[in-house]
Amino acid sequence: VLSLSVNVIQGVNNYRLQNEQRTAVTPMAFNAPFAVSQNSADASYLQQMALSFIALRLNVSSETVDASHQALLQYIRPGAQNQMKVMLAEEAKRIKNDNVNSAFFQTSVRVWPQYGRVEIRGVLKT
Fold this sequence. Notes:
Elements: H1 2-19, E1 22-25, E2 34-37, H2 43-58, H3 65-73, H4 78-97, E3 103-112, E4 117-125
Antiparallel strand pairs: 1-2, 3-4
């Protein structure tokens, strides 16, 4: 009975190690680590990645918009890249033609890790 119990516990632990392994990462310009696994990501990961995407999309000038948008496109799922590429190209053209600089200043961030959702509010200044 004891041997059977130990084997069951070992099996459960092996399954958890195989499917719930977490990796600590520090992204882009942030210095707060976060944890991700094959099945989930913590609130810190979602918040930091969302803020990074906002920066790539909204903190641009006529000189930086192309590089920022190109970096952002790397994170877009392949099925949506063409549509997003057209939208970003139109936006970049307007920014360059009007010689616009923009910056987004966040006022609040809310994260729902169980849904993989982040809400960022703020002010966009141009």
